[in-house]
Amino acid sequence: MGSYQESLYNDQPLHTKTSIRLLSLCQEDTKTGLSDNADSLIQLNLQVVDLDRNPPSFQALSYTWGSPFLDEEMAREYDHESNPRYVILNGWKVEIRRNLFEFIQLWASSPRFIYHSPCEASLPAEHPGDNVDPLGSSRELDPRPVMYLWVDALCINQDDLMERKEQVTLMSRIYTKATMVLVWLGIEDKSVEDAVQFVSELKTQSYGEAMNRSDTTRAANDWWLNRTWFT
Question: What gap in Å lies between CA 90 and CA 87, rounded to an integer?
């Protein structure tokens, strides 16, 4: 990702074996001026919480780092070196892969993803003392509760091998603790529709039975569905 990592992640150290970092969207709708095209970049906050110390509600993302598509031509379009994408993370311009960038674009624009927790959303306005930041800030919250997100590529310092190893051991707890696991199969196309149908059929059929159906075989060949931990 670049030389920014040491400063970025040192400013958000993981003090305990059960600490993780969570992403949230910046509340201010401002332009960064750091894009090559002078476009507005999505701004994200990175904050540390402890899974054993009443963390805020958060969602976790399951996705593929590379291209979500088997088609070679489409896969080349997702090559991060020739098609870099950027977000602002705690004030730093950070390069991320296209598939993750496309998810974050959708996540940033879809209230059903960001403001999902019915408990937080139901806090009465006449009790302002209840509207406090779940991470401990005394400021009043936006009327729409903030939703936090765990994404391995940004919440883990990928340049720190020891941290990566320790965070991988926590992943089962992270996904279990999350209020929702968001499965990102890529921008919608026919293969994504097939994959969703395939997963739906697993409610009533075994994996082998679903695989035997020709119209769902393509979906089962999707990168995400072929992950060892899923099958």
Answer: 10
